Amino acid sequence: MTGRVRVVWTPELLGYDFGPGHPMAPLRLDLTVRLARAFGLLDLPGVEVVGAEPATDAQLETAHEAAYVAAVRRASDGGAGDPARGIGTEDDPVFPLMHEAAARIVAGSREAALAVWRGEVEHAVNLTGGMHHAMPGAAAGFCVYNDAAVAIRALLDAGAERVAYVDVDAHHGDGVQRAFWDDPRVLTVSVHESGATLFPGTGYPDETGGPGAPGTAVNVALPSHTGDAAWLRAVDAVVPAVVRAFAPQVLVTQHGCDAHVEDPIANLDVSVDAERLVSSWLHDLAHEVADGRWLALGGGGYAVVDVVPRAWTHLLGIAVHRPLDPATRLPEVWREQVVELYGRPGPGSMSDGADLAWAPWSAGFDPADDVDRAVRATRTATFPALGLDPLHD
């Protein structure tokens, strides 16, 4: 391993823009990169910042139907939307050069994954990626093309025999699960708010993989308003065990930060401190099980100023092996930029001041606790197929 880290970024990636008022505002990415630069994270030795050209149709068609790609192109070039394919809906309105913008995100994740696989870099980060809802023939949930699915396909085509995908977005990673539902080479793990209360309405414990890949889909469906202690307990009770059992050669992770208590469109009550801790766990897990081969993607997160820049700057700091102390004050130059761009002050430090005390699963199962019951349902459904004891591992 080289120890080098690739960060996918170019201002052209801000072109993925559904328009004023849409929750997925490009400003969240602009502010994140400005914050990372203010901390000097992108200027460290061994960190390479690279742009991306749009993926080719052939590359997109490793995860999407050709007719769907053609429909996105038509809409992008001034044609009509195609609501039956999710194009031109409230979630995914048509915008100029939509195909090129979405395909650029895909190429960033795909090339980053291959750079990790080839040993050119140890870790790679594409914060514009993580478009986990896009389906083979339809856009969904703010996602036009599924960069994670294309990146994982590229890894498999390049010779990887086992790839694990872990998704901690508040929303179920349904598109990635769908792409590899019956592929025993890919483990998909999603820790999310239950589909009973949040889009996309899927991701229940009994979704465990197709007949050719039992146990390779792992879903932890959490009740609304799950907070730090329970969220950390749930992640720890499932994710490390199933990833270790699967023994992937590459770890791909999606770090949507919409589990945060301030996120306007989800209902979990997690702090930026807990999100930072889970990012560090996943980084360490990549070193433990995959010789450090790690691709980290962005995803959801709609508290544009107060959450996304801090959560993802923490992720970048972890990826470049320069983690930021949560007590660190935000640079004054960044705070001034926030006022200039957004018209109000931003947060003062990299922490929410959260108490991250939590009890590991080994401390005992509480049948009266909603989160414990959710975790136990997942472990019961999936652990045996992976050779794990649902009660004790």
Automatic annotation (TrEMBL):
MF-aspect GO terms: histone deacetylase activity
CDD domains associated with the record: HDAC_AcuC_like (cd09994)
Gene3D superfamilies found in the cross-reference section: Histone deacetylase domain (3.40.800.20)
GO biological process: acetoin catabolic process; epigenetic regulation of gene expression
Highest taxon in the source lineage: Bacteria
Pfam assignment, any one: Hist_deacetyl
Pathway: Ketone degradation; acetoin degradation
Record-annotated Histone deacetylase domain positions: 22-316
Keywords: Acetoin catabolism
Protein family per UniProt: Belongs to the histone deacetylase family.
Protein name: Acetoin utilization protein AcuC
Taxonomic source organism: Cellulomonas triticagri
